[in-house]
Amino acid sequence: MGTLTGGLQAIAPLFEPVYEALLDELRAGAHWHADETRWEVFVDIEGKRGHRWYLWVFQSRAVAYYVLDASRSAAVPSAVLAEVDGGTISCDRYGAYKKFARLHPGFTLLYCWAHQRRDLLMLANDYPQLAPWALAWVECIGVLFALHAQRREAWLAGREYGELDRGLRATVQEMADKREAALADPTLPAPAAKLLTSMRRHWAGLTAFLDRPQRALDNNEAERALRPAVVGRKNFCGSGSTVNLFSSNPWSGS
Questions:
Q1: Do 34 and 54 touch, CB atoms closer than 8 A?
Q2: Alpha carbons 171 and 173: distance in angstroms, whole number
Q3: What pLDDT is recorded for position 249?
Q4: How many CB atoms lie within 10 A of CB 182?
């Protein structure tokens, strides 16, 4: 253990220039996918209870930039995107991203529709009597993904997409109308009402993609970038000293 961790500590400074260059490249972007996952770091820090840290990833068109931090707060994206005037961030609905956007008005959050879909599937699983209702919403989201994919393909190919755009926006409006009609129903079960209330609260971020046809509806890029760490965490029993991670990563089109 001492040989391994000592070696890592010795070579880590050699990679600092690369890490800094990747950060510069990341900050040159205008759109990022962001996500974080728990990570155990077995060092004692004064004022911190426990050993839970967080592994963050910020992915631009050219770079997947990893940060290991003791905090899961908005201070992390604020530091990573320091001196960046603005842009769009594809993310989940975690509060740190919301606070970051409040502190930095130049940024727009694009909330992940895959997470919204996941909420509905969990509702169907937890409350079988609501499964038909929840799965009907899942089908609506499937239609949304399909229509957006058609519009995005046309946009990327430089083709006229006005009709596709109008159809997509009409579908989004139908979903909003359906949501409000359901919330106005006094017989709507509380778990379903809670889910739709959350959807309404996050609607601006869920629909921000309408004016950005090139963006994905989900945050799968960041989740895939974290997957190796998550799989390794599940299969790794030991621990030693930890250093920041970094890598360049080809962009896959989001």
A1: no
A2: 5
A3: 37
A4: 15
Cα gap 78→120, rounded to integer Å: 31
Tokens 């009709």 — which residue?
A: 163
Residue 244 has pLDDT above 90, yes or no: no
In residues, how long is the chain? 254
Mind listing the pLDDT tens digit for each residue in 227-243? 999 898 877 544 443 43
Answer whether 218's CB lies under 8 Å from 205's CB. no
The pLDDT tens digits of the residues spanning 102-152 come to: 999 999 999 999 999 999 999 999 999 999 999 999 999 999 999 999 999
H-helix segments, the chain: 2-11, 16-27, 75-80, 95-103, 113-126, 131-157, 162-183, 190-201, 203-206, 220-235
* Res. 161 pLDDT band, cuts 50 70 90: very high
In whole angstroms, what is the distance from residue 254 CA to residue 246 CA?
A: 20
Domains defined along the chain, listed by start:
2-111+219-248 (3.30.420), 113-211 (no CATH)
Mean pLDDT, the chain, as a whole number?
A: 91
What residue type is assigned to position 140 of the chain? C
* Contacting residues for 158 by C-beta, under 8 A, at least 6 apart: none
CA distance readout (Å), 222 to 50, 68, 213, 216, 232: 26, 15, 19, 12, 16
Q: Minimal CA–CA distance to 58: which of 20, 93, 29?
A: 29
